[in-house]
Design a protein that fits this description.
It comes from Hyphomonas chukchiensis. Helices cover about 30% and strands about 20% of the residues. It is of the alpha+beta class and about 450 residues long.
Length: about 450
Amino acid sequence: MAWYTDLRDTRLFSLSERDWTSRRLLDLRARLKSALPDGVPRKTKDASIIIGTWNLRDFDNNKFRHGPRRRESLFYIAEILSAFDICAIQEVNEDLSPIKEVIRLMGPGWDFIATDVTVGPSGNRERMAFVYDSRKVRFRNIAGEIVLPKQALLPDEQQFARTPFMVSFQAGWFKFSLCTVHIYFGDDGKESEGYQRRVKEIEYIAKEMAGRAERENENFILLGDFNIKNTVDETMQALTKAGFQLPPDLFPSNILGTKYYDQIAFRTRKDEVTFLSAGVFNFTKTLFTPEQYDHYAPVLPARHRDLNSDGTPKDRAKDKDYYSKRWLTWQMSDHLPLWVELAIDFSDEHLLHNLEPQFEKGDVPAQVEYTDAEDGETITSPPEPAEPVGKRRSRKRKAPRIAAKEKVGTIAPAPHMTLGEAWRIFWWVASGKADAFKRERKNQRKAEKTKASKAAPKQKS
């Protein structure tokens, strides 16, 4: 929940603008709280964690002169981010003032950690950042940017276009490391150098994080803008072949709903973290909608429009298209925020691990407790049980009651069939290969049966 006190500051918001922004915020909050798949789960104190990732387009230097972002847009961004416990953000620009303003609007308890800017033509002087609720998520004082060693450098001895950023956090019992990326895009042609560089960047960071997860026995989550085209593309395979697990349902993350650029993949310790749900939040259903075009038309930047002398558009349909497909993306983003919810309360499991079956048969008296100060001796062995007083009946220790969990997830969610897999199965059947396979198997079984009957010894009559 964002803080709304600025809406009452008449130096910032007129009565009309305050009314408009408040109405949009109410609509936005209602959609965030709606049932899945449209909304985002309600946050819990310690039962689960909601981890998000969002590429906030060019946030926020206005170098392409479609902005800057309006005051109301910062409120909307703050409201969406506050639905998560922690969120990775890509394309934060050199000036940190806009992200600091969003953090202020989110209220006390929220904090962020960001990289330095990435220099070079591909880096665009961007930063990557994590925004997190410090009342629930604690920074574990480990942060760093991942660089390629000399033997893994890309062609022409290139490093990552934008350096991946890894930070360690803790929420309750759950210790985890997040690594956010903004992978090089290049070209779409699979034979092009740009596309191959994209694949190589994903391959290396996935392999590196998988190796660390194994060595350190740590929960690693790799998330961000991978520029993955679709679920069966080589870019996706470069991520999953390193052993990273994806949610069973995958969602397109561009506002057109056609690309799977953003992903959240995780490698967690065995039987520790369970998957609950995942989704994408489509803010375009409530914010800057086509129906709201007339409200914003007077403030759209003239330099990107074809206008008559009186300021009206020469082609209303074309102007409306600019509003919906371009200007909107510089107010919010051309990416939708992606999220995953994990169950992280394993307090009961920790306590159950301490139970000893031998004490279910008979009780033992309470231990005698003493301190180092007594008798000037140092404790070198576990405390001993007290001596029984009088005749004592042996009682079995009762099985403990275990409270129902607030959130129950799945250790290893089975991925649902992708469109590509369904197409391959359909083609296998439609092409006759499935029937040919059945005939071959039938002939093999028949041949094996005949061979077995010939080899069997004949019974004497």
